[in-house]
Input
Amino acid sequence: MARPSGRGHVGDEGIGDPDLIPIMSIMCILIPMLIYSFVMYEVKVQEISLPKFGGPSTPGKSKVLNLAVLVSKDKHIIKIQGGGKEATEITLKKQKRRICDPAMPCDECAGPEFDDYDYAGLYKEVAKLKASDDFKEVDSINIGAEDMVQWKVMARTIDAVRARLDKDAFDGHCEYERSKPLKLKTTDADGNEITTAAEMFPKIVFVML
Amino acid sequence: MANKGEQGLPGLNQAAGGEVDLEWEERKKDEAIARRRSRGGEEKVGLTITSLMDIMTILLVFLIISATSDPLNVTQGLHMQLANSTASVTPKDDSIPIVITRAHIVLDNKAIVSVNCTVDGGECTEPDFEKLNKCEVNPTDDICSKEVKFEVDKQDKEKSDPNSLIIEPLRKELDRLVKQQIQENEALQRKFKGIVTLVADKEIPFRLLMEVIYTAGKVGVRGKGGLSQFRFAIMKTGGN
Output
């Protein structure tokens, strides 16, 4: 005769709920630990193209009109050369600005005054060039810097030349800092409406001076 | 035997108002407690933590997934602060990350090369790094206007030439890593994309960035590709 299965009797003995308190204790340690290590900022990437080492053999004789932004210790220089035109330069020196509390209006900034690169001026000049017939179809820009220029300055310079903002010019750095990227509504291949960021020179090429 | 009318059945004593109803409910509760006690003696009223466990488990799974799914797991600290930018391209997990901190160049979680920091000719100290990290909120601090240099020792350069753009230990390690990835991709019948993501501290100078880019650009296997696409990790900011 077959022996009755023991499984059926388990329920009769009345096994209680599992003791969850030790598991809870582990979770109470694990969760704050994970929250502490949780990244609260958004990491994105900025694409750049390979640097071009060495310039053209005959400078200024290039058939293609080139736009370059050079960053030195105290200024930005916009260089326009090639395309059979005379090379021109626009210099934007560092300017005095104040740290501004985001809750305060721009004209009431009362923070300490210090010298900073004129990113608002750089954006204004590059936007003007982009609107001109010479650069309407151009999507790349060369960016170079002196050896000691920090990456944070380069990143902000790239921002100033890459994307179009909600205005073409700003009164000061504070207004520029608070501006938003211009969004364009377009339709994709399926006919759905999509919103994309308007760009000026999305292709960034690093060059060595 | 007590009949229902004596116990004050609701509905039958409507005329007496809401008070009778309350009294009846109270009595019912007492009876229920008495019944429970008679059944199991002094019954322990425990805390039901099953539902709390459910919440905790969901939270734990969510946190673990968020922590592990980030292709660029950047830990910011004294020696690593990302630069702010409005760039909005999402990082992908098919790239080789090269981390450039204020102390080392890190590849594959290994410190490959030391980075020397000097401020006004003297070696940088931890308080200097702390002050540098606060330059954006306190730009009038002395250190923010001083020349802080971050460079690789000339012994780590190609032929020990300080002007060389090639960082030799980085080139060797990248070469090994690229060959390994090419083999892995071949085995999986995938194309090696050759993307590098540079996770650089915001204070790193352009020269050092270019040295790393140039070194990476020199790595590759003829006919099978090399490192040709470069991306910089940044911390996304809303405006400009």
In short: Residues 64-208 of chain A form a domain with the Nucleotidyltransferase; domain 5 fold (CATH 3.30.420). The CA atoms of residues 64 and 84 of chain A lie 8 Å apart. The radius of gyration of chain A is 29 Å.
